[in-house]
Design goal:
about 625 residues, 4-stranded mixed β-sheet, 26 helices
Length: about 625
Amino acid sequence: MNLILLLLILWLVTRPYEGILWDSEYYTVQALHFLWPDRYANDLYFAFGSQDQFSIFSRIYGPAIASLGLAHAHIALTLLTQLAWVSGLVYLAKGMFQEKWAYLAMAGVIVFPGSAGLVFHYGEPILTPRILAEALTLVALGAIWRERIFFSLGLLGVGTVIHPLMTLPGIVFWFLWFFGRKKTGWWACALAGTIVLGLAASGVQPFVRLTQPFDPVWLNIVHQRSPYCFISQWGMGEWSAVIHTVLLTLWAMQKAGNKERQFLKLASLIGVGGIVLSWLGGDLLKNVLILDAQLWRAMWMVSLISHLFIAQRLITLFHDPRSYHARWLWMGAFLLTLLAGFHGGFYLLATPLMAVAFLVQQWEERTPEPLPLWGRWLVASFFLVVFFQTAFFFWNTFILDTVRGETAHVLLIEFVFTLGALMLMSLSLKESCAGFSTKSSVRIRFGMINLLLLGSLMVWDQRSPWIKSIDEASGPPSDLSKILPQGRPIYWEGDLTVPWFLLRRSSYFSCSQGTGSLFSRETAINYWQRYQSFQPLHTTEFSVGSSFCTPLPGEETSGSPTQEQVKKVCRENPGLGGMVLLHSIEGMHPKIWNSPIPFTYLKSIGHSKRWVTADRFYIYGCPIQK
């Protein structure tokens, strides 16, 4: 029971609930569009088709919203999909490991970040069909381990209609595991390939995209909006995460059994192969289907399977007298990896330290000679550099809390709770293996576990007052509805969720709505036209460091909009009903809405950024009335 509670604590503190954020916004508005298509018909996200055509998730989410309301439906499905994910992990881990090791394997998967190039992670805390597709894939992997060929295939088939991109690595794994060494399997693969080509030639979506290249205009827009889709655009952060996973997989293979090693090999082949194919088909050939498929996402499966072996491998290492220096380097690398789960920047420190640990271990295990003195000095010097860099980064991330702009040190609390739960789990398993424990120690540990659980529950809901007010609103505020332009989409500066979820109406433009540019040329062209029209206003979306509206070379990123610029935006966008801005425009007379809840946003001030709040919104109708 204690181990189950500790796993629950680890899940809660590494995946807090922050409301409808990030990609969850897209899937939520798709569910709302499923319920009320007319309300969102003119929205840029839906005007030329959306990703909803490739998933049945809205058919699940939409009725839940209709029955429970938006806030309750979102929380309920978040909890249910996470429960499904953990159940899949339990099924996989208990198939691959004995009871004691299964709990440690699950702890490793939960606490260590499952990065696929820093953009997507397995077991995400947000509600998307990805986590449900991953859950089905995990159960399928457990069934594959148990040699249940048809059960695993059926699960993967269901996962495909929920989120095909996340399920695809599991399908490839299934084929290679059962048919990779059989001629009949490859003949079947050739037949499937022929069918796909036939569907492409017949114009059937999405297979017809296999015959289509990106034209230069479309490609440039996708480059600007979604650079993470191009392997050639990855930076040190993305490659650090990938190399980290590859090193960890190689390390796990060294002491794994034959079946475990085969599992790891297949997963790594699929993950690395996905990156290579993405580069060849997307970056070089510019093929629409291959770039859309984002095959590099397969790294999520590699990362998860390798994390299953961390605890077992680390304990084995500590019982090996030859690996004296390597064991402490590995401990440091895993501590940094744990920190990377709270901030991806720690990968830049964790990966080099892991590489050094790997090399030192190879020396200590393969040669009878101890590490030379110069080598020990070199390793010690490197370790000290990493230590001081970690201390500096830790201070800025967990103490100053500049990442989230919060006064309460939530990240630090989550990190401390994670360490506490891991330590209690280690003590519980140690006493269980020894077969001896005193009543007082059991009671003390049980009390500490319950205190951690209570604290984890208290910090789990981390929605800001602003987000909470939008998620839980029963309808748009009457004082706001009266003064907003009607009949056409509006632009709301700083928060797309206001028109989508609070007002339940179409949004004319936001940088987030450009996500469909990857899948639709029409969306890309219209998004880019609106981007260029709105950019001179220097709204918060165009600030330096914006997630999606990255300023182009030579673009200004600050400055107050003028009356003429606002009028120009209205003239260039006849479908725009109006704009809601965070600042008043000199010489104009807007309608003003005073929000009962302040809105917090990141503002560029000179060469720095600062969190500021606003509770007044300035509404300008289009066309501008004289």
